[in-house]
From TrEMBL:
Keyword Iron: yes
Keywords attached to this entry: Electron transport, Heme, Iron, Metal-binding, Periplasm, Transport
SUPFAM superfamilies cross-referenced by the UniProt entry: Cytochrome c
Gene3D superfamilies reported in the protein's UniProt record: Cytochrome c-like domain
Name of one Pfam family that matches: Cytochrom_C
Lineage: Bacteria, Pseudomonadati, Pseudomonadota, Gammaproteobacteria, Methylococcales
Protein name per its UniProtKB record: Cytochrome C
Organism: Methylomonas denitrificans
Post-translational modification comment from the UniProt entry: Binds 2 heme c groups covalently per subunit.
Compartments it resides in: Periplasm
Metal-binding is among the record's keywords: yes
InterPro entries: Cyt_c-like_dom, Cyt_c-like_dom_sf, Cytochrome_c4-like, Cytochrome_c_Oxidase_Subunit
UniProt-annotated binding residues for heme c 2: C169, C172, H173, M218
Amino acid sequence: MGFCRWLFAVTPETKPRRARAHWRRRSQWLAVSTFALLASAKTVFAEQGAELSLQRIGSGNPVAGKQKSADERCQECHGEDGNSGDVRIPSHAGQYAGYLVKQLSDFKSGARSHEIMNVMAADLTQEDMADIAAYFASQKVMRGDRIADNPLAKNLFVNGDAARDLPACASCHGENGKGKIADNVIYPVIGGQRRVYLRSQLTNWKLGERKNSPEAVMNKVAKSLNDDELNALVEYLSGL
Ligand code: HEC
Ligand code: HEC
């Protein structure tokens, strides 16, 4: 009998004993194969999960990073678990490690300037940066209090504005601004980021005082926002 016919065979009522044996073998086969299928699906999902968290955490050592970020006093400003208690200081919790390392390298080289951070990054090695970034990236991703009901900002965030060639923020920064990696570009988490920090960055991009984004993409985006839109986006994003 072909395998499919065996599996789906209708029990021949005229031969109850053979039928019972057939049912038994068939249920056993189904149980074993369902188990095997579930087990392999679990492995695949676990591997996908591991791959995703590796993407977020990068190659650094989060355990060493926890100690280093305490010793280097990063936690004093950015929070023990990467959630900053000050609206002017960015959170790093769940931020992509690759993005954090890029910013630290940019502070170190001067490609991004900030009085405090240029000093803080000055004597970090590549390994320190990777470890500290891995620690913050491995924390539960930052999250706002979701109070902002803001149609102007939401529309710009989700749809952009084709009339002035403004792409949707979400097309790069992902759903709810939780960031993503695509074609080797890291789009940072901005949803749930601290409010005053967001305003200062959008303003700096707009004025050209921060200019370290790939192909100046964020300068173009911020320049096409008027002040009302910029403020609305800040309120909206910090709540996500
Ligand atoms: C005295 C407070 C203070 C300390 C200490 C400090 N930071 Fe910062 N950090 C800031 C502020 C303020 C900013 C925002 C800079 C800006 O406005 O451009 C910042 C920005 C950053 C950013 C950029 C974040 C982003 O989303 O782009 C990174 C990464 C960072 N800090 C990492 C560190 C690390 C690592 C340490 C420890 C070696 C550290 N910081 C220590 C205050 C601090
Ligand atoms: C075409 C892709 C793209 C679009 C569209 C885009 N961004 Fe960005 N954005 C980026 C990239 C890439 C970076 C990281 C720059 C870097 O590496 O320094 C960034 C960085 C930022 C940052 C700095 C985050 C931090 O922690 O310092 C903010 C804030 C931001 N974007 C807000 C927005 C808002 C608001 C919109 C929509 C109005 C938007 N972005 C649209 C690509 C984009």
